[in-house]
Amino acid sequence: MNNMLSVIYFILILSALIVIHELGHLITAKRFGVYCSEFSIGMGPAIYKHQFKETAFSIRLLPIGGFVAMAGEEGVEDEHVPFERTIKGINVWKQVVIMAAGAVMNILLAWALFIGLTMYQGSVALPPEPVINGTMEGSPAKAAGFQAGDRIIEVTSHGISFVPENMNEITEHIQYYPEETTFKVQRGAEVLDLVMTPSYIKEENRYLIGIEYSRNIKEIGVLEAFGYGTQQLIESSTSNFRALGNIIRGIGLNNLSGPVGIYKITADTIQYGWMSVLALIALLSVNLGIMNLLPLPVLDGGRIFITLLEKISGRKLGEKAEYIITMAGVVLLVGIMLFATWQDITRLFG
User: Fold this and answer.
1) Domain range holding 179?
2) Residues 148-168 pLDDT 10s
3) Domain membership flag for residue 312
4) Angle between the 259-269 and 319-349 helix axes, to the nearest 10 degrees?
5) Residue 202 placed within a domain
6) Is 291 exposed, middle or buried (0-12, 13-18, 19+ CB in 10 A)?
7) Is residue 93 part of a domain?
8) Do the domain assignments include residue 266?
9) What is the domain count for the chain?
10) Angle of helix 300-313 versus helix 92-121 axis, rounded to 10
11) Which residue has the higher pLDDT, 346 or 313?
C-alpha cells in the first residue's frame, strides 16, 4: 500500500509540475494571439474534453504531464489558421517569451512555495558557521582528530582550496570532491591541518565526514518571509547552476538521478508530511525550470537558441540541419537519462 501511495504521489507531483509548465506556454501564447487548439492534462486517449471558445481543454487517460497544441508547432494541424496566428508568424521576442514562459512558471511556483513555507514555519535555519560542536563515533572526522570548538578556516581537495563561510559550502563541496581532504582549523591559538577521506553512505547516496555543528534558527515575521523565501530560491538556483557546471566538467556524475531516483526521494519525503512534500515540489520545480532553459534543441532553451540564431543570421535553419540538431539533442538527453537511471538502479540494487 505504501508503495502504491508513493507511486501516486510521484505521478501527481511530476504531472502538476508539467501542467504548470504548459500553462505558462498557454497563457502567453493566447496573450499574443497564437491559436491554441488544445490544452491537455495527461497523455494518451482523451477521457474528457470541453471546448472553451477556440481551445479544447481535455483530460487524458495517462496522468503523466500534459501539453498545449500551438499552431505552427510540428505535428499540430493548422491549415485553417492564418500565419500571423501561428507561433512562427509573430515577432521573435514574443516567440521567446512563449518558449520561456513554461520555465518561468515553474520558477514562480517554487518562489511562491518557498515564501509560503517560510511564512507558515515562522522561522528559518540560517547557514551554520564552520565551527565544530563534536564528531560522530567511528566517523572520518573523529579519526582525523577534530575537536569541539575547532573553526574550519580553509578546505583543500582535488587541487581546490576555499575559505568556507558556512558548513553548507563544505557539505556541498564534499559531495562533488569525495576524496582525501585537508581541513585547516583554528584551535585556540593554533592552526592545524587535519586530513580525512569522506565515507560513502550508500542508502542515502551521499558522502559523510561526521562533523556535528549547531543549527542556527531565527524567528521571523510575515514580511520577512518574502525576503528569506526569495533567498531560498536564489540559493537553489545557484546550486543547480553549480551542479550543471560540475557535470559538464565530468564532476559529480555519480550524483545524477533519473526518474527512479526522484521516485525514491518522493517515497522517502512523503513519510515526513505535507511540509516536506511541498518543499520537495519547490526544489523539483526549480530544477525543471532551469533544465528547460538549457540550450538543447529538444528543450525550450534550445528552441529559444535556434529562434534567436535565425533572427541574428537572417535566415531560417534548413529542415535537414534542424532535424540533425534535434536528433543530436534527443540522443544526448536519452543518454543522460539512461545513465542517470542506471545510477539509480545500481544504488538501489547494487
Assistant:
1) 134-217
2) 999 999 999 888 899 999 999
3) no
4) 50
5) yes
6) middle
7) no
8) no
9) 1
10) 150
11) 313
